[in-house]
Amino acid sequence: MTKIHDGQRVGPLDLTAITGQPVRIPDPDRLVHLQFRRFAGCPICNLHLRSITRRHDDIVAAGVREVAVFHSTAAAMLPYQGDLPFAAVADPHRRLYARFGVGTSPWAALHPRTWTSALRGMVAGKAAPPGRGETALGLPADFLISTDGHILAHKYGHRADDQWSVNELLHLARRTTNGSYRRS
């Protein structure tokens, strides 16, 4: 599986959110934070997405559009991600995961740091074990994509709760001045 690197150009991608809205990547007006999560009922993913939701106004003000991808069906995602204030995309055949080099690991959920996140997510609600075709071995990944489709920054998580915080995302977004890729 080929990984994506900073400076590489991706897209265009014409996707559909689980709520039916079109999602175009790159977005000609905003940066895109394309985040890959695990399965619809993943307590770690849903806990993290709630932190994104709480600060969504800050993210929008920074000129960033959120897009969260899960390897679940839209039907499986709607009870968990249907009320998010940003696009959630179903990729049950993992085509986007393959395109962006996002894989799995037997250590994804076995690392002790993930257990705390999983417990916090279960206490917060919105959690269920992986359903048919889903796996708990998926790894997260984050990509910040410019308005012209270049990867400005990326992170491949090494365990289930290894993703950008909102503060990290906002810091990365501030590094760009107009959403375009600039070689340094």
Short account of what is shown:
By secondary structure, the chain is α/β, with parallel strands linked by helices. Helix content is 29%, strand content 20%.
Describe the structure.
The protein is an alpha/beta fold and 184 residues long. The protein has 6 helices and 7 strands; from the N terminus they run βββααβαβααββα. It has helices at 43-54, 56-61, 74-81, 95-99, 112-124, 166-174, and strands spanning 13-16, 22-25, 31-36, 64-70, 87-90, 141-145, 151-156. Strands 5-4-3-6-7 form a 5-stranded mixed beta sheet. β4, α3 (74-81) and β5 form a beta-alpha-beta unit. α1 packs across α5 (112-124). The longest helix has 13 residues, at 112-124. The radius of gyration is 15 Å and the shape is globular. The two termini are 27 Å apart. The mean pLDDT is 91.
- Strand arrangement, largest sheet? 5-4-3-6-7
Total DSSP helices? 6
Classification by helices and strands? alpha/beta
List SSEs in N-to-C order: EEEHHEHEHHEEH
Question: In angstroms, what separates the terminal alpha carbons?
Answer: 27 Å
Average pLDDT, rounded to a whole number, is 91
- The Cα radius of gyration reads 15 Å
Shape: globular
**Percent helix among the residues?**
25-40%
Largest sheet: 5 strands, mixed
Enumerate the spans where pLDDT stays under 50 for 5 or more consecutive residues: none
* Beta-strand residue percentage: 15-25%
Tally of DSSP β-strands: 7
